[in-house]
Structures are given as structure tokens and as C-alpha cells.
Amino acid sequence: MMENMKNNYLNICVLSLTLIFLGIFITFFVRLIPLPIGVIVCLIGVILGIKYFYHVIKLCFKLRKEQKLSIFAKTYFPALLCIIIFLLMIGSFLSASVIHEGTIYIDPDSRKLIIYSVTSDQAVSVKGPYVVDSAIENESNIIRMPHDAMSTLGISINDTIKIGDSSCTVQKSRMTESDVLRIPINVKAVLNLTDGDIIQNIYLGNKFAGSQVVHNNTINSTFAVIENFFISDGSNASYYVDIIMDNQTIYHSSYILGVDNYKISFNGGDVKTISFNGNKYSSNFDYNGHQVTVKIMPSRDFSMRNLVNSSSRVAIDLYI
Q: What is the pTM of this model?
């Protein structure tokens, strides 16, 4: 008899939580089902949940003290675990809520699972969403962003990014702010962002589209490179750019390229203007007694880095 009662209570609990989860999922993520149906399903789940708790409390009063802990540990632990998951989910929804002029807005943003299936370094990661916040005091020319955001945009620490009339240095987020973008107020105005805005990883390029980046990249103790590119509004098919000196590859990267002219310089001096036709490119020339080859090939990668053309400035400047 007692065992049947336990099973009935657990069935009610599972049904209650299932209906609540289903109702919330319908309300926020299923457009084909009318909103009232999701709300009704949620309410039914809540009513059953109240009934479950009422019966559990009554049962606790009937049991001896030494039985209570054992009952909960053995019988109701799965139910309590489901309730904890439910509370965490509700907390996540509440953290995405905004109260404005007496109206409550809930715009849930989830993390994005990123799977790199075509690159040489196969990896799976979870990126974003990112929350916009004000720049730290005395950092009016610094943008702080998480490593995942830098990776998405193709930039790194100490790069310079020009947004509107402002040039900012990129720095990593503080240790306790793993998903926070701290942006100076004048830059936020250009990007049309305000404190508290949430940016999903997939839309990061769209927000920073058109921003010009000076990317400092130390290849090794012998070679360094400065790359100049614009951030594209999304990931597009790219091309590999290889620079080979005396049969040794000293530079390899991928960019979005158009049918255009691009300048490659050595040690700050213009050396070669590449006329790219949108397919493949290969050219040999001499530089300071060295045989240099520049190759461009279509790649399987997707990039947000749109290499600047010769009318803008030098695209790639190698230092030897």
C-alpha cells in the first residue's frame, strides 16, 4: 500500500515537471503552437506540482523521524534533482528578463555549440552569449572581450580596432567576467549598443561589421607580421595566403578576398602588389637577395577577416 502511494506521488511529480518543461518550451521556442496552449500546459503542470508537494508533506508527518531522511534519500532524490534543474532553468529565464515601463520582457539567449568539422584542429566549444557592459574607469580606449569572442572575430589581445572615429586596444575580459563585453561609451554609440544588451556568438560579426583591425602576430623569434583587415558581417568562404621565402613558408593565414589588388610589404616598405582574380594566384619575386613566392588558394575555412585592398592601406606587412 505504502509503495503504491510512493509510486503515485513520483508519477505525479514527473508528470508535473514534464508538463512545465513542455509548456515553457512551447511558449518560447515553438512558433507553430499558439501561446495560450503553452501557458495552459504550464499551469496544469504547476497545479499537479502543488498536489505532489501537498501529499509529500502529509506523508512526512505520518512517518517516524528516523524514516523521513531515508524516504527522501531513496525515493524522492530523483524528483528533487528534477526540481533543482527546473529552478536553474527558471533562474536563467529571469536573468534574461527586462522590466520597462511596467512591462516585463523575457528574451532568453542560449549558448551556442560550435563544431569545427573542416579545420585542421578539430574542436568543439561553447561560445556566448555575451553581455554588453561599460568600460572600466580610465579605460576609454580599451575594449575587453572574452577569448571566445576574439576567436570568432579573428582578433587577439593587443590588436587595435578602429570603430567610427575611435581606435581601441583589445584586452581580455577580467577573470570573473567570462562572457562580458566591456565597451567604451562612444564606441557603444557607434555600434548601437547599450549596457545589458545580449549578443549571441553568431551575431557578433554583424555588430562589429566594418571595423578595421590592425592585428599584430609574432610568428616566431625571426618573423613577425602586421595584418590589416575589416571585420565582415558574417563567416564567408576564404582563401589561404602563403608567403614562402627561400623554400620556407614564413606566413600562412586565411582571409576573405575579392577580385582586387592587395599590397604585401617587407619591413614597412612596399614590395609587391597582388592582382587577385578571385581564383588562384602564384607569383615569384626577389627581395633583398631572397626568393619570395606568394600563393593564394581557395580554402575550406570560413572567415570574418576581410583583407584590406591596396586603396585602403598595406594588407600584410612582414618583419624579418
A: 0.68
